Amino acid sequence: MAEKIPEIIGKYKIMGLLAKGGMGAVYKAVHPSLKRLVILKKLTIRNNATVRERFKREAQILLDMQSPYIVHLFDYFVEGQSHYIVEEFVDGLSLAQILEKQVALSPEIALLIFQDACLALKFAHAHSIVHRDIKPGNILISKRAGVKLADFGIASSESGDDLLKEKPSSKIQTSTQVDSSLTKHGVTLGTPAYMSPEQITDSRNVDKRADIYSMGVMLYEMLTGKKPFPSNISEETLQKIKKGKYVNPRKIDKSIPPEICKMIKKMLKANPARRFQSIESVLKIVKKYLSHYDTHSIRVALAQTVITKNQFSPPAFERKSHRFRNAFFACSACVTVLFLFFWVWSKGYVHKTVLSHWYTQVVLNMELPSTSSVDSDLPVRSFFFVDDGKDLPEVKNTRRVFAEKKEALLKNGAKTTVKTSSSRVKNYETYPIYLRPGKYRIKIAVGSYVMWNTVEVGKKNLNFKISNLKNAKRLLTVHALSYDIDSKKDISQSSKFQVLYRGKWILLQDLPETELKTGTVLKFLVSCDGYEDAFYSLIIDWYQDELFLTASLKRKL
Model's pTM, two decimal places? Predict the structure, then answer.
């Protein structure tokens, strides 16, 4: 008489039995709060602590594996003598079931599945988890073509932290469908046909390169419908695996891309040191191949493969046309070349090289008071006009802004900074202008100052110096006010405004107007009975001829 299926386990309503064995069972159930289907794995073995630890270990690993490419863990609980894991239900087929129906897959569909499996492994490896049982039965594909990696039952830490501490065994059990590690009695160390040589020898001491090997075997099978090596592990088979003797995939199917065959060959190297050292390297090759195709159409075909009961014949996938991409690159190249040309032209490189016979370099040099801040506050500009005695047309692309001269010169092999004629003077100059020989007028605009100069340009480079304003100063007008900082009351009438003049504090109104000049540092002291004094030290630029000094005074405590 068949055993009755329970209606409720824990808080989960049971919808059906998927698998049953000596160690437990797998149920399809409904999550009570999420209202979605889940897989409920049951372990009932009582006297085997190793198996219980493995079961618990799988739950612990899945708890940290929050990736869209790995089955999601919802719950882990104990009820009576049984332990339970509640996982995401993937409504579809395993890759093993698809291969049973299709035998082999087109390179595009196979590599799309493979890419998602690689992304799952990338996430696991990043968390130092080695799966150790990569095979088609553990790749689940939904009806919407979502690919998930499942069954971390024998996974281990890459650092060698294996809770099970199994001893190597010559008798290795295989696993079949979902729940392979639970429905068969015994210790599962992997699936022989997909295991790397080092995993066959000692499954405890393997790293992520063992998973890469298994992925290579699985991809070989997806593309050819055959495994590279026999499923039974005999001494003869082991020697073939160690020597890497298998049939080249292209001898089975010419449509398999050569670059993918080359990738598989490296993944199946018997020596781990000669394989890819990380799944990212494999993923890079696969992504490059898939970039030539419309992956959405491939995923649609994969979904149809899952849904169709009988063998499905996918359409031929055409490579993307690169006409628009090539046109874009061509246009970008043209724009870049034009930009470089105009940049080179504007900087005068063409004029001083190719056109040096017809053009002369002209640099304007101007001396201004050292307090000047023309770099930001008061830009100095120059304009060039042809002195034809009539309309004075402006020469195109010759407008310049002066910048402070800071370049260094080499003198007797040592670097020395350019020195100006006086510490009170700063030197400014323009980028070179290139002019044909002839007579020109130069307009210099400095704030409210405008200067015109006439210059004759010959064959030799010209450095034209302008020093009209180097000693410029202006009379300064000061407007002084004071306020109570708290009440904002104007207390100017009761305040004293003093300025430091020749080492003494003098009332501002007593200082002769002719003594207040720009281009200096002025110090002011503002005081008022009952208030704390306020001190100001201000640099007044040579062209700033009106100062508004507003002091906010704080009452004394």
Answer: 0.57
